[in-house]
Each structure stands twice: as C-alpha cells, then as structure tokens.
Structure prediction request, 608 residues.
Amino acid sequence: MTFSIHGLPVARGIAIGRAVLVGSSRVEVAHYFIKPEQIPAEIDRVRVGRNAVVDELQRLQHAMPKDAPPELTALLDVHLMLLEDETLTTGVKHWITDRLYNAEWALTTQLEIIARQFDEMEDEYLRERKADLEQVVDRILRYMKGVVSPIALPPPVRRKGGSHQMSPDESLTVPLVLIAHDLSPADMLQFKQSVFAGFVTDVGGKTSHTAIVARSLDIPAVVGARSASQLVRQDDWVIIDGDAGVVVVDPSPIILAEYGFKQRQGELERERLTRLRHTPAITLDGHKVELLANIEMPEDAVSAVTAGAVGVGLFRSEFLFMGRKGSLPNEEEQYQAYRSAVEGMQGMPVTIRTVDIGADKPLDKGHKEDTHLNPALGLRAIRWSLADPAMFLTQLRAILRAAVHGQVNLLVPMLAHGSEIRQTLALLDFARAELDNRGVVYGPLKLGAMIEIPAAALTLPLFLKYFDFLSVGTNDLIQYTLAIDRADESVAHLYDPLHPAVLRLLADTIRACQAQGKGVSVCGEMAGDITMTRLLLGLGLRSFSMHPAQILAVKQEVLRADTARLGPWAQRVLESEDPVQAMAEPLTARPDGTPCRVDSGLGPLSKY
Ligand code: PEP
Ligand code: MG
Prediction:
C-alpha cells in the first residue's frame, strides 16, 4: 500500500530505489560495499564470529551448575537455536553475495528483517524472542570487532514494525536508498563513496551536519522524517523527493511514472547548468562574484574544480578528526591532507577552518562531548582547540606548512571573545616559532574569523582589527541568534534565515567589512540556497561559499541579477517586519531609470 512520510528537504532531486535500513544494532557497525572477490572472506568472517558465539554458549551450558534456574538453561537453548537458524545464515549470505554488503552490515540488515517478523507474531512469548535475537547478533558483531565482554542479558529493546517478505534476488543495478534513524556526520562520510541514490533519516534539522554532508554528496535527502525507519521495511520501493521533503513508500505505478518524469526533468536541468561551468560569475550590471566551494575532505577538491569553483571558501577540517576512535591525526598526516587539497585546487585559494569538533559533530559516537547536556553551547570549535593547545598547535603547524604549496587562508570558528582571538594569534606565533626552531619551511596565511555567534557580529571592530577577512557561518549564526538547535527537527519550523535579527547581523557584517576594505564571505547553507542569492547580492555580498553541487545553480542566479535594482529592494527586505512578504514584492526599475539588461547567457529571461 502506498503511503507518504513528510520530513525536511535537505538535498534536492528525486531518488527512486529499494530501501536499505541501517543502524538497528546496539553495536557500532561499519557499512561499506565489498568487491566481488571478497565475498567468500566476508561470509567466512560471519561464520567465524557465529561459531565463536556458539562455542561460548556451549561452554556456558556445560559449566552450568546443576541447581541453576531452568529459565537460564532454556535461554541458552534459545540463543543456540537462533544461531543455527537458516533464516539468519541464508539471509546474511544473500546480502553479502547479491548486494556486496560488508559482513557486519549484512548481519544487521538480516537482523532487522527477522526482528520485524518477530514483531508480527501473535504469541507474546515468541514476540519476546526478538530481544534474544538482537543479543546473539550483537554478540557475533562484538566477536567480529574483537570487543567481547562477559555474556550479559539486557532487557529487550522494543521496536515497532511490520512483517516483511524478502524480495527475490535482484541485480546490483537496482538503485538503493538509505533509511536510518540517525546518521552521524562521520557515518555520512563513510557513505560518500557508496552507491546510495538517496538518504532519509528520522531525526535532524536542515542545517544539521548530517544534512550538510548529505547535501555535499549531491543526492536527494530528507531528514526529520520522524518514524521513517520504523515504517519503511528493508527492500521496500521508496521515492525520495528532496525538493519537497516527502518520502513515498511502496508507490503505485502511476506515482512511480510521475516521479520518474520529474527525475528526468531534474537531470536535464543539471545537464543544462553544466554549460555554465566556464562562464565567469558576473552580474548583469558587471559585478564580479566569487563562488567558492565548501569541502569536507581533500579529495572533494576534484568536485570543486569540476563545478567551476574559484577556490575553497571552507574546508571543514574536523572531518579528518572524526571516526578515529579518539586518536587524532598527527602533524604529518594533517599536512599531507591540507597539501593535497591545496594542490587539488590547482593554484586557487583554499580556506582551511581549524577544527570544529563538538555539538552534532562528535569525534566518535559516545565521545564525551556527544553526551554533554548542551553540546552546541559547550566545548566546541575554537573553545575545544584552546582547551587542548598541543592538539591545536599540531594543526596550526600543519596548515602553515601546507601554505608553502599555494594560497592558504586560515579560518577560526566560533570566536566570541577578544581573549580567544588573542590566544589564537599567540598560538599561531608559537606554531611559527616551533617550525623555525625545527628549520621547517612554512608559508604566509591570510587570517579569517567566522562570524557565527551574535556576540561576534555585534563587536565587529574587534574582529576587523585582528583579521584580514570574515566569513559568516549563517548555520550557527541563525542557531545562536534564535536559540534554535539546528539539529533538532522539532524546532525546525522556527529556524529562520529571514528573521529580521539574522538579516540585520548579516547585513551589518557585510557593510562593516566593505567599509574597511576587508573580504567578507558567507559559507553557511544560505550561500548555496538559490532563493537567497538575490537578497545576499542586494545586501552587497560578492563572495559565496557552498557545496560544489550548488555552484552552478547559484551562478545562474548571479548571471540573471542586476545589483543596481537588488540593492534598494534588499534594503526594503531588511527594514521590513515581514521579510518573506517583502521578498515576494516585485523589483521596480533601476534607480537611474535605465532598463534592466536581460541576458543571462542561458535560456529563460531574467526574473529581475
Ligand atoms: C556555519 O555555521 O554556517 C558553518 C559554515 O559552519 P558549520 O556548518 O560547520 O558549523
Ligand atoms: Mg558553524
């Protein structure tokens, strides 16, 4: 039966594919695709893990004292029986052989399927056996991971869900879409090289870091879809409408055809946009606009160059620090990563942001900042760096060294206090001195500060005194101005880039930088949102940093824009108590009365 689930649209386009559910296990599990030649080894890994658990349970059974409660013996019997069950072993083999899932992923996928069958059972006793199944699978996973603790039997974890009929084997050409309760930004990175055609998560806001990484993958995604991971079943056909934030499950042929059409239209539009790749981003009235890329890993430089970016405006270096089980990248490792990004950009500037760990970007799942009561207000970004000077100096030295290979800008996140600025600059001097002492060469850096805390936007002279340029992190600026957790879908409706207070802080920052001849850019999600391009241009912004996938669409907006008309219009939006309404008002003629040129270099005439 067709039904739809509504969430928040985070990455545009339509994806149609079979659902892959991840994340039901209590053990952290890696998800990746294996090569066909690895199939026997992966199957063997599961077999070895399973046999180890069988051995352990049998040993326990034999060592059981005569007077042990009969329930305990029965429980061990049940666990052994589940381990022998064909549905488990055959299913796991299917996911490894036919879908090329790695062993752990295959195991948790099959667990999900059988667990739902248990949920459907009439008999309460049998229904309760789901918890036993989850325990034995966790046990196998722990063996495979080498983390085995003495057998403990936690209370059952209850999940809702329906029964599921496994589909017949399908070819590997069937597109897959990922459905999960939650994915950390590090999980998303793991999926970067994968073949998923789209993503859906139950939780998350539009500018949560998971959503940001999804957007950088340039595939349709919906977050905050509440109970999607409970309602969708493994292998269901699913349509993800990343423009509308809708997930259609088990679509009828008519719906499929309709979305198939939309999908093709979207592909055609993208193809059309690629023609703009080499066109300089210049407005109709001749203003040059800098379109830069946001990247997470050095290898993203390739897509930045392909999209026609004129540099990297934000390299989120924290992604080099994540998912490493707490171990941090050393100076050499970081230097190589930064150098590779700089070289990948072929002489164009690269802005490396110092590590912004914390809030919804933990180093690892369960790491201490992850469990902090109020992580967005806690030890995050520059606060974290200043709290661990040895770590910070390592990063600063690596960035300084990378600056030998091209133009590097250093960007510092989440500054609010003069003392933080001064400490940061002192540590930078110290890092230079350390390199001097070691006789290691390093290059010049332009220094930039992120404006993402209202306190910073309200004390701009302080920032302009110390920094060469400012970069507005609108994702956090909105979060902290409006007191809205950007990762919390339950308050997503209040997360408003057009709130007059946000616009005021943004406009003041742009104006203050221009008045002093300093560079200013926006690197939050607002910069890549084509519905905001006119407004930002009208407020005077000439440097935008966004995911490579958004560059061409924003360029099209720039080519169609006439800033002479946008300026007065943006002022009206800024002064309005209802900016959304003010934005909808048509633009009047240019202030000097001359007609607006309408050559966009591409298709449809300018809206402006
Ligand atoms: C921002 O806050 O707008 C920003 C670009 O930084 P991040 O999204 O990584 O917090
Ligand atoms: Mg930020």
Notes: Residues 1-22+161-276 form a domain with the Glucose Oxidase; domain 1 fold (CATH 3.50.30.10).
